[in-house]
Amino acid sequence: MVKSEPKKKPQLGGFFQKFFRKPERNEKEQRGTTGNKRSGEGEGEGEGEGEKIYTSKSAEFFLFWKEYPNKKNKQTAMARWDRMRVTAELYEKIMEGLKRAQRSREWAEQDGRYIPHPASWLHAGGWENEYRPLAPEKPTPPPGASCNDALASRRGLVGG
């Protein structure tokens, strides 16, 4: 029995080689590591080893979900929440930003039509956005109150 030689792949030259070759992997990628994770450095911004991470199964996520006005694609939001590795500090920032967004013009326009889905809002870091606050409503005078506006009284809008 004669062993056949393995077939060689055709060499792509010039134009095709530039776009279709596999990128060379560096040593860290080949080992599957991206940094020193044992000391808690590298992935988070100063995360300590003892810092608690709130998962999508935690009460914190459900409080976020309860407060968020556009309840769409919950599974996607849960996956995004888990990838973010939400700590207590980040959770507070998210909830404060959510309260600001709920009181904003952007979210109140057209009956909330432009409120993003929760996963999109989390992915984009929506809690860090600057929102325009709703215009304060002008206080309406109680019925029967006198008005000093001469024009309004001449038009008959105010009884007086």
Question: Sheet bearing the most strands, described?
Answer: none
Q: Order of helices and strands, N to C?
A: HHHHHHHH
Over the alpha carbons, how many angstroms does the gyration radius reach? 29 Å
Number of β-strand runs: 0
Kindly report how far apart the N and C termini lie.
Answer: 116 Å
Helical proportion, percent range? 25-40%
**Number of H/I helices:** 8
Strand content: under 5%
Describe it.
There is one protein chain. The protein has 160 residues and is an all-alpha fold. 39% of the residues lie in helices and 0% in strands. It has 8 helices and no strands. The protein has helices at residues 15-20, 27-31, 59-67, 74-84, 88-102, 105-108, 118-123, 150-155. The longest helix has 15 residues, at 88-102. It is elongated. Mean pLDDT is 75; it is low at 33-47.
